[in-house]
Amino acid sequence: MRLSDVMGQAGLAGYAEIALILFVLAFLGICWAIFRPGAKPAQDAAARLPFEDDPTGQPEEETRS
Amino acid sequence: MNAQLDSFKYDDAIVRKFLVATFVWGLVGMLVGLIAATQLVLPSLNVVPWLSFGRLRPLHTNAVIFAFAGNAIFTGVYYSSQRLLKTRMFSDALSAAHFWGWQLIIVAAAITLPLGFTQSKEYAELEWPIDIMIAVVWVIFAVNFFMTIARRRERHLYVAIWFYIASIITVAILHIFNNLSLPAGPFKSYSMYAGVQDAFMQWWYGHNAVAFFLTTPFLGLMYYFMPKAANRPVFSYRLSIMHFWTLVFMYIWAGPHHLHYTALPEWASTLGMIFSVMLWMPSWGGGVNGLLTLRGAWNKVAEDPILKFFVVAVTAYMMSTFEGPMLSVKSVNALAHYTDWIIAHVHTGALGWNGFLTFGMVYWLLPRLYQTKLYSNKLAEVHFWIATFGMILYATAIYSAGVQQGLMWRAFDETGRLQYPDFIETTMKLMPMYWMRVAGGTLYLAGMVIFGWNILKTWQSRPAKYEEPVIQAAPLERKPGESGKNVFAGFSVAGHRRWEALPILFTVWTTVAVIVASLFEIIPTFLIQTNIPTIASVRPYTPLELAGRDIYQREGCFNCHSQMIRPFRYETERFGEYSKPGEFVYDHPFLWGSRRTGPDLAREGGKYNNLWHVNHMKDPRAVTPNSIMPAYPELLTQKLDFNTIQKHVDAMAMLGVPYGELIKDGAAIEAARTQAAEVAADIESTDPNLTGLADKEITALVAYLQRLGVDIKKANEVAAARLPAGGQ
User: Fold this and answer.
1) Whole-number Å distance between alpha carbons of B82 and B92
2) Lowest mean pLDDT, pick from A5-19, B51-65, B388-402
3) For residue A60, is it within any domain?
4) Do the Cβ atoms of B642 and B551 come closer than 8 Å?
5) CA–CA separation, B688 vs B680, rounded Å?
6) Rg, C-alpha atoms of chain B
7) Dist. CA B568–CA B260, nearest whole Å
């Protein structure tokens, strides 16, 4: 029996839904990490990183969100 | 100042090297593109074999992608990473090895592609020794980059760095798995995969090469250089994080949209389409984020050529990432596939997004790297306008060409017959548009020349010795209790930062996202047998046909001829029975092609006699007036290398092609000679002037062409023979 026969008969189709659920959960987790209250100050600081190499060239405006 | 501060210097010398290489290879790659575009309107420009269209086209694509865009990526990555991570690159020696190694690869490509050494997979044409070099140099780059991250003095990894990490990891995976092949000589190899599976791997690679070589690294550059040029932080950092993760999770699935209505299983094609449509959202999220970074600075765009380049670059990104999902919808794809529409789509992305972002970045870098003023802002403006105009000319012409030819291919007249049964009719209609493309390309190239002049003059006014400012930054301290073990701690704010601060874990998760998506799609294609039903009458190519197939690959015939008839009436009327997955099980590599500059050849076998093919290869215009195909008279005089045939058959046998007795020493050569003598005798019997072709390359090529798509007809003959008299 070849590996392809084993795979063909293993009834793996249902695992697609499990994968979908896992991916949705990962997506929700990322959304939570991003939009969680209290995450903003860290993100604002991160957004300013490109300007830290040059003390004279500070950005004219802050990030909006 | 704190006594604990570290002092260090940035390595800008390496950035200057990559910058110059970006320009030089950009000029070469675009010039080759212009020559290839001109050959399509003036086929007589295919003067020597090594400069014929089939060999130049891959040189053009490789040069602009890996040499121009590649060096542009490295320029920006080396400049921005050091500053974002507050450290010098890990090792000057590794940086130098990366730079010179990459240039060596480009030179090797520029030599081997015109010589006809090719794996014939798009954007993965380079043969196995160069593939190994690429892998080694990429690892050098990766080690240098990740060690730089490890030595950083800034805890948080800015989003640009994430994009760089994802690109480095994914390109490595793509490159290795798509190029798995069995060497059959110093510059000859056969893909491990065959037919449908090879096509699937190739477009998993091909699409993601666009994603992780031409998109994500450039997005990293956008997220660094656009805020710098506009002097304001990115519009929304949150959106940039979202942009990153959604792209990394989704891009990898989209590849099969390159294979709609081919012999690929339909589920794979549908999956590719759905993910492609979903990709529209994150792409536009990122594009909008880029454009809104200019909030309150739009007045600057009027006077600053750098911002102009960036605005057009991001706009082109948004146009291509709207068009990509649209083209992936099956019904749209049915019209666009194999036409110039795809070429136009690619060029909107390459000329607009990659080109303009590179130009903007380089103009921003020039005064900083050469520590002087930009030679001429005015010339930069001229460059911008001339390149924009060139791009518009190119796009307008080639979009029109694509839609027009697509519509002509599917047009039926009132009697239900093909309205344009002669393929050449549809080609001739494109000539005015092809001339317009030449004009557009010339303008874009003229812009490059102006760009080069500006770089040269700026470089000339550099100081005698570059200043190397000493940078001071506090070393990174490990926070108490920080540990790399708790991966899922990532979902609290402090934890999220801690998580990002651990590049190894971050990299692992990115890799997992990419690999899991790949496996979900790839494993079923390889391991579920029902996906590729076998056809008993399909047999391996004879040794002579295999040699002919090697010549077909060498000359790059697949650049203009597809071997894949889609199941549409207008295709089957024109080319014959539609292609079945089981017909390609011995095709290492697959040669389905992606553009029909000439007609499909999947059912070419038996359509014309041997003599027709000889005359057609010798002078296509003598057989088909107005044909734009290059002539190959040399195939009638060049001797076929019979000695390599055995090695090639043996290699195919090792890949599982059932060659039986033919792998015995010399058996394949003997078989090839016998078949060659028969083909040559047939040619001579129809035209007594054509003598002595039995040991010439043309014989092998004709044998191969006559074999294309005939096996399945044998199955029909067998079936027909079994029918009672009077049956059909």
Assistant:
1) 12
2) A5-19
3) no
4) no
5) 11
6) 27
7) 12
For every residue of B304-318, DSSP letters joined together read -HHHHHHHHHHHHHH
Q: Do B491 and A63 touch (CB under 8 A)?
A: no
- Number of domains composing chain A: 1
Verify whether the Cβ–Cβ distance A59 to B232 is below 8 Å. Answer: yes
A35 within some domain: yes
Domains in chain B, please, with CATH?
A: 15-473+490-506 (1.20.210.10), 543-722 (1.10.760.10)
C-alpha to C-alpha distance for B48 and B39, rounded to whole angstroms: 12
Contact A43 B237 (CB under 8 A): yes
Beta bridge partners of B7: B472
Within a domain: A7: yes
- Chain A interface includes B243 (CB < 8 A): no
Asked if B227 has any chain A CB less than 8 Å from its own CB, the reply is yes
pLDDT tens-digit readout, B568-597: 999 999 999 999 988 999 999 999 999 999
Q: Does B689 touch chain A (CB under 8 A)?
A: no
Residue B484 has pLDDT above 50, yes or no: no
State both tokens at B1: 């100042």
Counting DSSP H helices and E strands in chain B, the numbers are 28, 4
User: If we measure between CA atoms, which residue out of B713, B709, B679, B710 comes closest to residue B697?
Assistant: B679
Radius of gyration of chain A (CA): 23
Nearest residue on chain B to A35, judged by CA atoms?
A: B238
Closest CA to B300 of B373, B372, B222, B232: B232
Is the model's pLDDT at B722 over the cut of 90?
no
Return the residue in A20, A21, A23, A43 with the most chain B beta carbons within 10 A, the one to mutate for interface testing.
Answer: A43
Report residue B466 CA to chain centroid gap: 38
A63 inside domain: no
Q: Please tell me the predicted confidence (pLDDT) of residue B600.
A: 97
Q: What is the DSSP letter of A60?
A: S
CA-CA distance, B634 to B551, in Å (whole number)?
12
A34 close contact with B: CB closer than 8 A: yes
Pick the residue from chain A with its C-alpha nearest to B247. A27
Q: Look at residue B360 and tell me whether its pLDDT is greater than 70.
A: yes
Looking at the complex, report in whole angstroms how far the Cα of residue B286 sits from the nearest Cα belonging to chain A: 14
3-state SS assignment for residue B185: strand
pLDDT recorded at residue B464 = 95
**Domain coverage including residue A18:** 3-51
Residue predicted with more confidence, B90 or B156: B90
Interchain CB contacts (distance < 8 Å): A and B: 117
Place of tokens 């190959």: B632
The answer, yes or no, to whether the previous bond of B589 is cis (omega within 30 of 0) is: yes
User: Residue B156: what pLDDT?
Assistant: 87
Q: How far apart are CA B634 and CA B617, in angstroms?
A: 9
